[in-house]
Amino acid sequence: MERNLTEAIAQVKLVPVIKLTKVEDALPLVDALVAGGLPVAEITFRTSAAAKSIETVRRQRPDVLVGAGTVLTVDQAQQAIDAGASFVVAPGFNPAVVDFCIGKNMPVFPGVTSPTEVEMGLARGLKVLKFFPAEAAGGVAMLKAMGAVYDVRFMPTGGITEKNVLSYLGLKNVLACGGSWMVKPELVDAGKFEEIAQITRQAVELVKNL
Fold first, then answer.
1. Catalytic: which of 22, 42, 172, 192?
2. How many domains does the chain have?
3. pTM for this structure?
4. What are phi and psi of 19, to 5 degrees?
5. Exactly one of 127, 130, 186, 195 is catalytic; which is it?
6. pLDDT digit string (tens) for 110-122?
7. Is residue 207 part of a domain?
8. Is 205 an annotated catalytic residue?
9. Is the per-residue pLDDT at 41 higher than 80?
10. Domain range spanning residue 144?
């Protein structure tokens, strides 16, 4: 399952990082992403609507790959599992959360910014790690440096936009990039799903030839 998951993420190259305040926005939003060519969504646990939104998408749009983001606690990880999330993403490396997900056979991508944290992931058999906050933590140069030492792939997130995404995706150790520029909360809250579909289409077009 995990290999198929990473292959699917590598194929789309972009993972939209979504903050939903209303569950009823979940389906129109993922429909906009799909219309733009991105059948994947990372719905963050930054709002109380997260678990129900993941459950709704998983049940009604089974072809969309939906994960849980900003998972900070074991309780949130359990909620993500119960909601049917396909993967869990965390901003940092919380051993309790990571070990819990591994024990539940739930693919988990914890956030790292240092060699020490990368080695914590490797010690647990993890092959893909989130690199967050990417731009603030050294960006492309940091990933190049770690790529010379570690056989692991990264999903950089944080400060990534249409202006710098290609420099990240051009690295061999980058699986895909997480980003929110195509799903800005103000667009979601305003119900501007056509605009989100258009921005997503442009993002997909930008990265498709890599």
1. 42
2. 1
3. 0.96
4. -115, 115
5. 130
6. 999 999 999 999 9
7. no
8. no
9. yes
10. 2-202
